[in-house]
Amino acid sequence: MVAATVRHILDTMGNMFPEAHCELIHSNAFELTIAVLLSAQCTDETVNKVTKDLFQKYRSPQDYIDVPLEELEQDIRRIGLFRNKAKHIQSLCRMVIDQFEGDVPRTHEQLVLLPGVGRKTANVVVSNAFEIPAIAVDTHVERVAKRLGLAGWNDSVLEVEKKLMKKIPRDEWTETHHRLIFFGRYHCKAQNPQCEVCPLLDVCREGKKRMKMTQNRKDKKNIG
Question: Which GO terms describe its molecular function (predicted)?
Answer without folding.
Answer: 4 iron, 4 sulfur cluster binding; class I DNA-(apurinic or apyrimidinic site) endonuclease activity; DNA binding; DNA N-glycosylase activity; metal ion binding
